[in-house]
């Protein structure tokens, strides 16, 4: 049977409307912040610049990072920054601006990572878990004394750690916390769990709000120092919060690194040519981050502007890593799939500005509403 001309016209108009919506920038926006190190200098500088650019582009000094992203992920120090930017003050607004969050980490750094000596014969330097926990709890408690949980965030949050009980990665998420109290944890404990560097802190035992789920956590950076892939996988499978997603073509991802930890190649080796033990952890964390970067870069190769990685790479220019004021002036670096890196013509600051332009070019009203934390969500595969 021949399709009528009217029918063809109807289908043609529907197709054009669908294509217009697809090309209109209606993408799910993902922000990912690496772990690595204790200062968060690189990601902190990027976050401050990101929020400042959002305010400039919108002409609204009250605009916040969380207003323009649908999900935020973080590991280690990146998880603490992500939690502060995302924590709900009780009125649906974040507890901290980007400047306030970075300033808090900087001002309280000595308490967050308070060094103590342990052992009698062989003295070793370790961080004080109690001191870190006090600072984390202070930051993630409202003025009225409410201790925030995973459910108390403005937008979905993803934070990984490694669970010694199950010998597997464990990913904390607001989606799971909203589904069941058995996956809801105090937010400060989540940040403590993902920061439990086994070389400097004891594993951290934490239990869900209802006491049914426990985790003996060590540093999430050992398995997901760059949590971008975890965030992308989460949104692709969470159809209740992100029903319109069909693939990476529907995503806009900004991934913030915290600079390389393994230093220049010469310093990794001893005089005998062996790899120095103190650099092994740095190599692991850098390797995890760069592998994820390469995989995502390849997944977004059809449109590089949909995936932006901001990373401080001072040693590529012969230095030992940039200072705060140098991070944005440094030229961006792109990871090539199993082929090293190459310097880009744009600086990190310019790349963030271009990214923000895409976020706000059409105005907030044209962007899809971010998931509501009160909406029902479905559990992921294997209950998480």
TrEMBL record:
Transmembrane segments: none annotated. It holds the Pfam family Patatin. It comes from the Eukaryota. It is an enzyme of class 3 (hydrolase). Residues 31-232 form the PNPLA domain. One of its GO terms (biological process) is lipid catabolic process. Its EC number is 3.1.1.-. A motif (DGA/G) lies at residues 219-221. The nitrogen atoms of the two glycine residues in the GGXR motif define the oxyanion hole, and stabilize the oxyanion that forms during the nucleophilic attack by the catalytic serine during substrate cleavage. Belongs to the patatin family. Lipolytic acyl hydrolase (LAH). This is Patatin. It comes from Cynara cardunculus var. scolymus (Globe artichoke). The lineage of its organism: Eukaryota, Viridiplantae, Streptophyta, Embryophyta, Tracheophyta.
